[in-house]
From TrEMBL:
Species for this entry: Desulfitobacterium chlororespirans DSM 11544
Protein name: 7,8-dihydropterin-6-yl-methyl-4-(Beta-D-ribofuranosyl)aminobenzene 5'-phosphate synthase
Record domain Metallo-beta-lactamase: where: 20-211
TM annotation in the entry: none
Record GO terms (molecular function): transferase activity
Length: 274
């Protein structure tokens, strides 16, 4: 399995653009997938530099209804007219972020795209094809990320705290190995892993994605106490972790100091083979 990071907050070299967002190209033995498409058309530009043909992608999975993961959707649909695009039914709700001046900033997906014929709405457990599926409806027994605060959704004309019911996670099973991919882990990476374990009876072998441990607009991050507790939990799962995006560099460095080689960072332009 080959994973190429098309979009991330950082890049491995100046040749690759970066932005606040995430897009991963995943190639299995039988399929070519995209997981998220970043905030713009940058994913397409970086894909060309990594010899990825967006027109040949079989499936696109959008992790949740925020622009930094689905902002490039219109560009994708222009470049690829065959792939099915899998989103949670609530992904096209109106989503906002509360700014420091108490103004609301729209952070959702472009509403008119939901009428596109390539769009497929998923469910709590949804099989895309053999060995590739998504799940949502995560049971949240552990605390949620601190930086979910200020992320809102519109319901019946009123803005309320986002429940992140629109967030889904990708699972790929190939040759007795399992990869779990998260977008931002707004439901908490420990909760997502526990939900996976509940569904499958074991932990994944590999986990890739953002863990939402930092603020996108400041240097704030989860406390070292919570990060150290999380690092121990992640090590106990025995999985290999590759994180990025909303995890943040400082939280990553703290996790890395505790977890060593069991966690690594993915930047735009990187290629990972597992």
């Amino acid at each position: 399995m080959i994973i190429k990071t098309l979009v991330e907050n950082t890049a491995i070299a100046e040749d690759f653009g970066s932005e606040h967002g995430l897009s991963l190209y995943i190639e299995t033995k039988t399929h070519k997938l995209l997981f998220d498409v970043g905030a713009s058309g940058l994913f397409w530009q970086n894909a060309a530099k990594l010899n990825v043909d967006i027109a040949e992608v079989d499936f696109l999975i959008i992790s949740h209804g925020h622009y930094d993961h689905g902002g490039g959707l219109r560009e994708f649909l222009r470049e690829n007219t065959k792939a099915k695009v899998f989103l949670h039914p609530l992904a096209f709700e109106k989503h906002y972020a509360l700014c420091s001046d108490n103004e609301l900033a729209w952070i959702g997906l472009e509403d008119d795209l939901k009428e596109n014929g390539q769009i497929v709405l998923t469910s709590d457990q949804f099989l895309i094809t053999e060995g590739i599926w998504v799940f949502s409806n995560t049971i949240r027994s552990e605390p949620l990320p601190v930086f979910n605060k200020g992320l809102l959704r519109e319901e019946n004309g009123q803005t309320t705290e986002d429940t992140f019911a629109h967030e889904q996670n990708l699972v790929i099973e190939e040759e007795s190995k399992t990869l779990l991919v998260t977008g931002c882990a707004h439901n908490g990476i420990a909760n997502i892993l526990e939900q996976f374990h509940k569904l499958k009876g074991h932990m994944p072998d590999y986990v890739i994605g953002g863990f939402h441990l930092s603020s996108p607009s400041s240097d704030d991050h989860e406390s070292f106490v919570r990060l150290d507790k999380l690092s121990q939990y992640l090590m106990d799962t025995k999985a290999s972790y590759y994180t990025c995006h909303c995890t943040g560099r400082k939280p990553y460095e703290r996790l890395r100091a505790r977890m060593g080689e069991s966690i690594n960072y993915l930047s735009a332009g990187s290629t990972l083979t597992i």
